[in-house]
């Protein structure tokens, strides 16, 4: 008989804890507090009720646009422009098509510009100095042709390479076998 006496205070605590708010106990009747509010068409379909909205129907007739019109060519546009009223007539074409002589003009000829004489006392450009060799792994390399962004170099073993300045005082040499070496940029 003592067991029911122990259960009674536990049930009272559960009942009193729900005071002031809605207590939802599973497997009991009543409103579901977790159910989304509303009566939309989607909620009706989720609950298995028939939808009150009529189904969509296809529009009668052909709803697609007609065929794409061809793009006008320059020739057809020029013909249309010639057919417009109050338009000046274009100048007559030369009788000889494909002639390399330009059409005549009513403008006076331009005066000739006299040639600029050389300035006396300016020294000629110094002759190009032979390229200076610089040290690389295995010996000295000799630069040859190139631009400010790269130079071809002949390496100590006789193979060719490409030297690319890095802009920080060093240059990268890419050898013909694919190996890469970084050296101080030669002056």
Describe what you observe in this structure.
With 187 residues, the chain is α+β, with helices and mostly antiparallel strands. The chain contains three helices and six strands, in the order αααββββββ. It has helices at residues 2-17, 41-46, 74-83, and strands at 134-136, 139-146, 151-154, 160-165, 170-175, 180-184. The protein has a six-stranded antiparallel beta sheet, with no helix packed on it. A hairpin with a 4-residue loop joins strand 4 and strand 5 (170-175). It is flat. The mean pLDDT is 76.
Question: Which structural traits does this protein have?
Answer:
single chain, 187 residues, alpha+beta, 6-stranded antiparallel β-sheet, 3 helices, flat
Give the amount of beta strand, in percent: 15-25%
The best one-word shape is flat
The parts where pLDDT drops under 50 for at least 5 residues are: none
How much helix is in the residues? 10-25%
Average pLDDT for all residues: 76
Order of helices and strands: HHHEEEEEE
Oligomer: single chain
Distance between the termini: 108 Å
**How many E strands?**
6
Main β sheet profile: 6 strands, antiparallel
């Amino acid at each position: 008989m003592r067991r029911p006496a122990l259960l009674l205070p536990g049930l009272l605590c559960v009942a009193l804890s729900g005071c002031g708010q809605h207590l939802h106990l599973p497997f009991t009747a009543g409103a579901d507090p977790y159910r989304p509010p509303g009566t939309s068409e989607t909620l009706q379909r989720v609950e298995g009720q028939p939808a009150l909205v009529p189904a969509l129907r296809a529009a009668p007739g052909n709803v697609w646009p007609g065929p794409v019109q061809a793009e006008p060519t320059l020739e057809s546009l020029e013909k249309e422009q010639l057919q417009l009223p109050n338009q000046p007539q274009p100048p007559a074409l030369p009788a000889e098509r494909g002639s390399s002589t330009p059409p005549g003009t009513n403008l006076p000829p331009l005066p000739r510009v006299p040639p600029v004489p050389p300035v006396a006392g300016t020294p000629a450009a110094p002759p190009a100095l032979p390229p200076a060799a610089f040290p690389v792994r295995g010996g000295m390399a000799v630069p040859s042709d190139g631009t400010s962004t790269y130079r071809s170099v002949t390496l100590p073993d006789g193979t060719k390479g490409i030297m690319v300045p890095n802009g920080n005082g060093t240059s990268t040499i890419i050898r013909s076998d694919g190996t890469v070496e970084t050296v101080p940029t030669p002056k």
